[in-house]
Design a protein that fits this description.
- This protein has two domains: about 40 residues, no CATH class; about 60 residues.
- Helices cover about 55% and strands about 0% of the residues.
- It is built from two helices and no strands.
- The relative contact order is 0.11.
């Protein structure tokens, strides 16, 4: 008998070893279902890099812009500074939660 192969229920690719999660889209796969990452899928790799870069850049830009404008004497700039600072802090917290979840 040949190896068990199946398609991922979310992204639709498969063939290979047995895993608990699809290595392309990350979906939980029932035990015993063979799912591997399709190296021919360029979009998913580009999307992962885009998200990775955005999660590094957005908090830095938000915090720098917030610190820059939060002490500005003009009302609109001060309000925008608070918004940027809050955005930077929130994205930093979300990044930390995601990192802890990935490491657990």
């Amino acid at each position: 008998m040949g190896a068990l192969t199946a398609l991922c229920p979310r992204c639709g690719f498969g063939a290979g070893g047995t895993f608990n999660f699809c290595s392309s889209c990350g979906r939980n796969v029932p035990s015993g279902v063979a799912v591997t990452r399709d190296d021919g899928v360029v979009g998913s790799r580009a999307l992962r890099w885009t998200v990775f870069v955005a999660t590094l850049v957005m908090p830095v830009v938000g915090i720098v812009m917030g610190v820059r404008y939060v002490a500005d004497p003009r009302l609109l700039q001060r309000a925008l500074g608070r918004w940027w600072l809050a955005l930077g802090v929130v994205v930093t917290c979300l990044d930390a939660v995601a990192a802890v979840a990935l490491l657990a």
